[in-house]
Every structure is written in C-alpha cells, then in structure tokens.
Specification:
globular, about 350 residues, 14 strands, homotetramer, six-stranded mixed β-sheet, 2 domains, alpha/beta, about 30% helix, Dihydrodipicolinate Reductase, domain 2, six-stranded parallel β-sheet, Rossmann fold, 11 helices
C-alpha cells in the first residue's frame, strides 16, 4: 500500500508535536506538511518548535520547512491541532477546498453533522459525513473530530456498560494533567504544591455534552443524544501527563460488579478487531490492585492509547464507582485523531 | 484565669508537633508535658523531634525533656497524637487514671459513648461523657475525639445545610495532602508527577461513618446516626498541606443556591459566639472566584482553622455541587482537638 | 513618632504584593498609595491584584483604589516593585520630582552614584546619596536599591568573612525558586519533574557584579569594587519560595572552620543593633544538622529576613564550602527595600 | 550466536527492575534467573515486585519465579542490584563459586583489584581481572563494578578533556533525582516544594574517589589515581529521574572553548566503535540551546544511556564551566553494568 501524504496544522504547539511524533513512522501515513502560524512559517521545524516532549524530535522532521496556513497544502489529509479560534476559521475553509480534516479542536465537535468520534465507541457516526458533505456542499473534503481529553476515560469506560446496562447518571471528578492546557499553559506558581478546582467555563459543559453525543444513536443525518445526566467536577493537578477521573454511575438495568468487569474485559471493539496501527490491545486495561491506576505508572499503557481502570466497588449513592485514566495528549488528543483516520483508511473510506 | 497544665502524647510525630505549635502560647493552656515512645524519652524535644513544620520549633519547648508514656504525667489534660495502636492501649488507661484526653486518633471515635466532636457542629454531643464515665466506671477522666482530617471540610459545609434542608446523599471526591499520612508517610516516588487513587481501606469508611455520627441526634446515652448516604472517592495528591473535596449533594427540602449561600454566610455557631481562642472568624469562608479554594492560597485562612468553600453550582445528578478545603494537620487534626478542649473550658466543663 | 506615608509602585504584581504585606502594619510607615499600570488604575486593590501569597490580602488595603503612575502621588516615600523597563522610566522621574525611591528593580543598581544596599553589609554606601543628588540635580528625592534575590544569601554569608579574612574567589551554584520569576513566570510544563539550568543572560552577571559592589569600599563619590572572582551557575528548581546556594570560597588569609563559624555567629551588624522592625535576630542562622538549610523548613526563619547557613566543611579545590538560603521574595526583594528604608529612618536620614 | 543465560540479584528493587527491563529482549543475554531476598523467593516476579517504572513489566518475566539468593543459580553471569550490605556478603561468595558478577553496588568499587568501569572511559581497566582472580584464588568468577550514578555525568564529560588537556581541579554541584535513593527512599514531605542539600556521608566522597580511579592509569595490578582535586556539593531535588551537575574545571593545558567542544564532539570511544547494543550513539550529546540539558527533556537521550551537555562557557575562578546530565537509574545504574557485560562479550572476554 502506498502511504497517504498527510499534514499537521498547528504543528509547532504541544498537540502538534504529538501529532508529529505519532505520525513519524506510520504504516499508513507519510507526514510531509507541517503548517503553523505566520510567525513560524519559513523556519525549519527544529527552529520553529519549542519541543516539549520527553522523547526527541524525529530527526527526519527537524529539517522540514514549516508552511504558512493556506488552502494549497500539498497533501489530502490534515490533522488539526489548531486552537479553537483558528480552527473555526480554517477547518471549514480547508474541508470546502477538498481536504479531509481530522481535528482535535473543539470548534466543530458539537455540530449536528460532524462526527465526534472514538473508533471503539461510535464508528457508525462516520455515517454523518454524507449529511455533512450534502448540507455544506463539500464534495471531497470533510471534518471528523475527536473529543476533549477528559471525555476519553469516561466515555471509553462507559461505552460497553451503556450498551449492556443503560447508563442513567454519572458523577465524575477529574484530576487533569498540566499538559492539557498546552504551552505555556498553567503558570508554575498556580500548580506547584497546589490544585486548581477549575479548568475553564466550557470544560464541565464538554464533559456533559460530548459523552452524550458519542454514546447517542446515529440517525442517518444526526445523532440522538444519549440522555445521560452527567455532573462533572474538573480540577487541575500537578501531574505532567495523564487525566484521572473518579466516577460514580447509576444504571437502568442493575449489573453486578462481576457483570461490569466482564463487560470491560470482553469488550473487543472495531479498532482492536481491525488491528489498527495505534489501537491499544486491549482497549481497556483493568487493574486489580487497590492503588491503581496512577498517572505516572499507567499513562503509557498501550503506548498511551489504552484506558486503565481500577477500584471498581459499590457506590452508596449511585450504583457503582471506579477510577479511570487515559493519557491526555496521546489518547486524549493527537492519538485520538490518528486512530480516527486509521479507521477510515482500514474501512476503505479514504 | 490560671492556665491549665496540659501535655501532648506522641509529641514527636507530625501531629504532635502541630499540637506543640498551637499550644505554645495559649491563653487557657500551659504545655508542660511532652510524652512519646521509649525511644524519645529522656531526650530534649529538640533532640527527639525531627521537626517538619515550616515555622521553627517554639524555643521554650525545645529544651523540655520528653517523657516516657505513663499514667503519672504531671498534668490533668492530655492531647493525643498517638498512632491508632498505641491510642487503643493508652487512651483508655489514661482516662481511667483520671486524665481528660482529647484525641486525634481513630481508636475511640466510633464508640457509642465517645463524643466525636466538631465544636461548631455538635457541641451537645459532649453530653455523652456522662454515659461514658458511668458505663466505664471513670470518675474524673474521659475521652473526646476529633474526626478524620477529610471528614472536616465535608462535615463543616454540610452542617448548616443539613439543619435547614436535610441532606440525603453526598458523592464526594477528596484530593488529600501528603502531610495527612504523617512522616515518613508517602514515598516521593509514589507522588511526584502522580496521584494515588487510594489512601487506606478505612479512609472511605470513615468518610461515610464519621459525618453521620457528627450530624446525628444526641439521645442522652448515644447518638442516632444521621442516615445520610455518602459515597467517597479518596485520593492522595502532591500537595503538602490542605485537603480539597469536590462535593455533590441531594437534599430533602430543595434549597435554591442563594438559600445555601445564606445558610453558610449567616452560620454563627457556638465557638464563634464564645470567641474561643482558636475559633476561626468566620467558620466558613465562601469565595466568589471561580478558581477557589486552592490549597496553597486558602489553607491558612483563619490560621488554618477555617473551611473555605467555592464553586457552588447546580448538579445535574444530585441537587448542588461545590468545592471545600480545610487544613488537614491544623483544623483536621491538632487544631480540632485544641478547639474541643477550649469549648469545654469556656463552658466550665473542665 | 508619626508614621510616614508611603506608596508602592507596581503594587499589583508578586513583589508589589509582598511590599503591601510587609508594610500592612508597620511601626514607621503608613501605606496609603498603591500605584500600578493604567490597566489596574481606578480599581480597588482587591479587584486589581491577582493575589498569589499564601496569607490573605490585608483587609484594610483591599478597598484602597489603585492609582495610575504619576509624579503626583500623595506620599514622600515610594517602594518600587516595577519591572526593569518601567523602573528605568519612572524611578528617575520620581526622584527628580522629590520622591525617595526604595527600589527592588535592577535598573539603577549598578549606577556608580546609586547605593546598592544591604543594611547589614554596607550601610555606609548611603553616603553615595550626596553625590547622587549633586550630580543629578535632585534636591529632595533619591534612589536606593536592594540587590538581586540570589545575591542575598551569597553576600550576607560572605560579608563577615570578607571583613576578617579577605574573600578572593567564589564558585556558587544557585537553586532558585519559581517565585523569583514573578507571575505568570515559569510555565509549569517547564519545571514540574524538571530543572532549568538557566535563568536569564543577566542573572549570572548580577551574581558577579552585585556582591563586588556591595562588598566594595565606599569612596565618597563612588565605590571601589571588591575584586572578588565570582563564578555563578544559576538554576531554577521546583520550589515555591527560597533560593538555595552551594558556595565554595577561597580566602586571602586562611581561616579555620571554627574561625568562620565564629565570624558568622558573632556578627552583629547595624540593623540588629538598631533593632529595626524587620531586622532578623540574628541576621545569620547557622544550623548544625547535616541536611540543612532546606527551603521549605528554613525560608521563614526571621520572618523570611534571615539567611540560614549549613554544611560548613573544607573544599578540596578552594578553601571551604557551605550551603546558604534566603527567602527570595521577602529578604531578596520587598523585605530588602523595607529594611533599607527602616535604616534611613532610624538614622534620621529621612 | 547463542544467548548467554543471565540472572539479576536483588531483582525486585528499583534498580533490579531496571535490569529486568533492559535485559528483557537483549541480543546477547537471556534473562532466566531472578533472585532476591527470602521474602520474595517462591513468588512470581509479578507478585514479588512493586513495579515502579513507567513502562509495564515485561510480560514474559512476570511469571518467572523469584529465587532465593544462593550459589546454585542456573546461569553464569549475574547482574547485581543488591544493597551494599548484601553485596558485600554475596558478590564475593558468588565470584568465588565461579559466577561473573557485574555489580551496581558500592561494596567492591574501590578495591584495588576490582575494575570500576565505564566502557567509554577505561575499558583497559578490565586488565585488573587477572590480578583479581590470582590474588583471590578465583578461577572462573570475577567482579566488575559500575560507578555511582552521580559520578557518571562528571566522568563521561571529563574523560575526553582529561586525555587531551589534563584536568587539575573540579568544583561540582549535583541536583540528584529521587529515584537515586531507591524505594521507598525519600519521604515526599522532605522533597515536595523543597531541596535536600545532603544525600549521605559517602556521596561526596564517592564523587571524589570514583572519577579519580576511572580516569587513573592502569598499571597491570592496580590503577594509579588520577590526582584530580574534586569538590562536590550533592543535593536532592524534586525530579523523578535524571541527575544534573554544574561543573567548573581547571586544566593543566588551557584549551579554548572550541577545543573543548571539538574534544566532546569527536569523541568516539570503544563501545560506540563496537556498536554495543546499549551503547548510545553518540556517547555525548552537546546541546547548543542556553537552557539545556533539562532532566525531563534530556534524560531519555540515547535510550537513557547518553550524557547530555550544555552551557559551556568560561569560569571566572577555574577555567571553564558547563552543565551535564545523565539518567541515574539507566546509565547511572543498571544500564552501566549491562554495557560493561556487553563490552566483555564483544571483546571475547566471556
């Protein structure tokens, strides 16, 4: 198979760097275009990017010249790490120009005709693209989005449970890593020896809306929201990578704890069946130790693409409670969109 | 008023040091006895204690000689910072010998005839002491306990709400400081760049039982438990001092958000009315900023004795949710017992 | 004595907040003017300042209205927490207009006619003010500066040794707290689980020049530099407050280790003799434990104004080596200038 | 080539885990023996080891049964992660019994007939083994040691400079990661928001002695010490992995800065020439940015086996100064001994 030429939008930022890292030696994709703001354009990637990842910049990308944003990028498929404001402006323009845009930005996620996709959870939502192209008059281009980094561990753990038992209500508290705020992001004086009990106005809203869209029913031209009551308390903690959530859940059809464990452990969704390059095997890792998952020890599970679960036990108020963790800049950002694109390739949709 | 001679049991440990600090220049109490294990006995306090507090050891205590545990300590009132196993052994023995023991240990907290006391919340529970002395055949001595450090911010914020609106259910997630585990406590490799989603088997049990006892109804010889359903998720975070909790609450009589604010802001419990030396004024500090309370900025409110509240907003699953914070080794440990003793002095019960 | 009305320039920033805190209940000074940039002017201090200190904003200052920078501030004495660029513009203008400016900024520190002052070290350098006023045509106003925060622990420990034994050479490595970079300052992604081996181009230059000026000889219209060879390695570490330095020193007249200890322990400089309000007693605290000083345990010594020393031992390359620590935003910034002003008041120079 | 069966002594501890990780899929070695104390013996490795590394335990090792320490282990080559006291007892006994022991322990490092080896620095010191076996009456077995973790970045950077210019004196300050103290190691209360200016009595002694032995001249039955004056200030900092050192150096033959850079950049020592499996290519990475090396960004360079250098500049007291960094539990511990063994294999010495 010939590799597909791809580009990264917003390539110099923290999420853009993750895209570059994950795509550096990809079996489907050949990363040839790095685009960013005017300030970076014309410089080599080495000069333009203040590399913040712990593994070094892929050497063959270091000398690529960063390009200015435009609708004349020489590739068909784009991964977008643009900030919301630029995503709003550019992603639609690029899709209209025929590009296939896989976006980590929040700009289009809740549009009714845009798939908000986790390949393990709602691959059928890709059916929205027909409506998207028809409605917007786009012929070849489209936009597919991945969810907010904190929605990931919650939605991944709820998906197999919702299918079997019907999730009615969720109270969730997040303890989110600093890398989720990008760079420079959180000032160190705000977070060393401290916790911030607030991320942004929109964070708790996303935690409510996004899982309800992803767990909703695909109806050819839209998605019926799942109708789960979700109450989220979002916090920033002094952890570099890995978002941890404590979750209490109420079900329609009351499962036992072994029922739940079985639902998680036997879950074998599409990306794992298709053995997609970045699909974690398994998607969900259930730890039996009392003190797991922990971000420092578990965030790299499945090369940062797995969701790690622990401490399943009864809840005195809802039905059960547990802890879940996912790597926020791999699974929760760049890796999510890479897996979305892999799914479409493997299904012959590109 | 002549000062009452007091002693600290377990004086060399982290909580013992806090007792020493809070009692160093106290208007009611004169700290003259420091007792600890055999290993420390005979040394000066300076030699025996590995001082871990950020303010220096009170100079006049540094040269006191640490005594061995015994029932011949020369004071009438003892503050106990003993670990559970030693507390089980010694506190009863000392009460029997006539000492008034104000304990931070968990050993006697849930005994039906032992007051588990927050002076702002349940001062009437001191009535249990009559039953305690009668039942155990103690004439002069007794045991009064303060709650677990994580129960404090939850119980302090719920108390005025329970009185007015009836609390039915609580889902709470704690983010607890490392000082709560004592010294040496949490290994640094376990907590730098990390979160531990587990404290101890008993921690979440205490979070359920203790508030229900403290918010329960005093019935001359016992307390009727409050019957609130409490589900606690306890976590350790890389913060030195200050336990933060996110709380979702369901009420019997549904209050509006302004009703709740008013209940908190007009709360004027007994220690504040009596103007006890270590009573914070006010007991509850409600912050209006979106990103408060924060442990580094708010734990010293009211000299570490206040509970700081923020982010009151509706909850999509229960009724309302908010964030609360208290200093775990001041209000949540040594300071709690000091205030308990102050209350009894001020009420002429000693 | 009637209190002197004073103001703080740059009152809303991190150092400005420290000035406000230290001056809040000062026996000599009455803080009545808070000045800052246009953006803050007209707001109350509570609204304008993003308070970053662990103790709450002094309540009586919270409702003061922040004023715009001008030469019509209603007080005679100003403490400057301005950033360098604004200090360059405003401090001279204000001195010319008759204000006595005590500045923490670097702008004027190395000017030959401006005292770079540590009251314990070089009080006689205030003699430069005559030259300063004469040369610049200022009648009533002047500028007195305090040194860089990292120069403090080095200069304080060297001063009594230089006087007795003649310091020839110093190799110093600093481990500097994040608060030294102000707010927002150091991004958390740069410093959690990390060290930055670089502060700024100028930092190591200041570490060389400033001690040489302060330890230099006052010559009526200038200061003869001390001529000490100083090699500084400056690092940022994940500590909130407190700069630690490791120091190796070569002397002209070789002292024994007891000679050095005696020089430190018997040092009784002018601010301590005059018992100035913010003078630490003693100025130098020598710890005998092997593992001190530590920033978390020792930075508040002398209310953050003392310098704490430990680990004096021979050096295999120079003569001796040791560790020193000072609080960077108290002694190393606002507190330094407050003590400078106190010295002038106590000596009848204001 | 058939793989050599190897074992790890002290396999359950932090350094033992690193050995297991680095040897998991090794081209020369087949890890079949995991030995540890009586307490772990008989359990599977999964049960016995409290895994502290961020990458998961190699699955094929998880079910190996941990063996008790004995002289009947079924392999010829042993890697030792034993604590000093056990190393003193067991390593000699095992060598006598015919085992080839590659040890990370300090027990035998400074014995005159034991190679203290960095393959890049002093491969010829393996010649001591003849003397070692002769003197001790060992026929087949021997002991080869790797240096202390903090000696690594210093010795690696000095080696090519010493060969060309003659190093006379070094003043070095270390900022050492918490993983260097093992597990549980440093209590979190001692290191969060803090620095410890002391590691252990012996740490600064090792920093002086070990580089002098490794840079010394091999003389058939012993090594002539290099005679470099080394003054070390050792500190613990809140970093998980990666020891950073600031270094000032005086030379006999004064090099220019470009001379030094060239010496580092053209250094091509034996392990790199032999292309040993764990040899980093290159051994020394010189960064040109002002703010590098940093532990979080640079410790994984060369899979944790490289030494990263930055900030070369003149020193006002000695001749030049710079910053160096190496991963303390990979290059500075387990990886060091693995490379030692690889060198002997590649040279046909095993």
């Amino acid at each position: 198979m010939e590799k597909i030429k791809v580009g990264v939008l917003g390539a110099t930022g923290a999420v853009g760097q993750r895209f570059a890292q994950l795509l550096a030696n990809h079996p489907y994709f050949d990363l040839t275009v790095l685009a960013a703001s005017e300030r970076s354009a014309g410089k080599t990637y080495r000069q333009a990017a203040n590399w913040v990842l712990t593994d070094p910049m892929p050497p063959h990308l270091a000398d690529l010249t960063v390009q200015d944003m435009s609708t004349e990028l020489e590739c068909e498929l784009l991964f977008s790490a643009l900030p919301t404001s630029q995503a709003t402006e550019w992603e639609g323009k690029l899709a209209e120009a025929g590009y296939r845009v896989f976006s980590n930005a929040g700009a289009y996620r809740m549009e009714s005709d845009v798939p908000l996709l986790i390949p393990e959870v709602n691959p059928e939502h890709l059916g929205l693209l027909k409506e998207q192209q028809a409605k917007r008059g786009w012929t070849r281009g489209f936009i597919v989005t991945n969810p907010n980094c904190t929605s990931i561990p919650m939605t991944m753990t709820l998906a197999p449970l919702h299918a079997k038992f019907g999730v009615e209500a969720v109270v969730v508290t997040s303890m989110q890593a600093i890398s989720g705020a990008g760079y420079p992001g959180v000032p160190s004086l705000d977070i060393i020896d401290n916790i911030l009990p607030f991320i942004a106005e929109s964070e708790e809203v996303k935690m409510n809306e996004e899982p309800n869209k992803m767990l909703g029913l695909f109806q050819s031209d839209h998605v019926d929201m799942a109708g789960i009551a979700i109450s989220a308390h979002c916090n920033r903690v002094p952890v570099t990578d890995g978002h941890t959530v404590t979750i209490s859940v109420r079900f329609k059809n009351k499962p036992t704890l072994p029922d739940i464990l079985e639902a998680w452990q036997t879950w074998q969704p599409l990306p794992q069946q298709l053995n997609l390059p970045w699909a974690p095997q398994p998607a969900l890792v259930v730890r039996s130790e009392q003190n797991r998952p922990q971000p420092r020890l578990d965030r790299n599970e499945g090369r940062g693409m797995a969701t790690v679960i622990g401490r399943l036990r009864p809840c005195a108020v809802l039905d059960v409670r547990f802890v879940a963790l996912a790597h926020n800049t791999i699974r929760g950002a760049a890796g999510g969109s890479v897996l979305n694109a892999e799914l479409m390739v493997a299904q012959g949709m590109l």
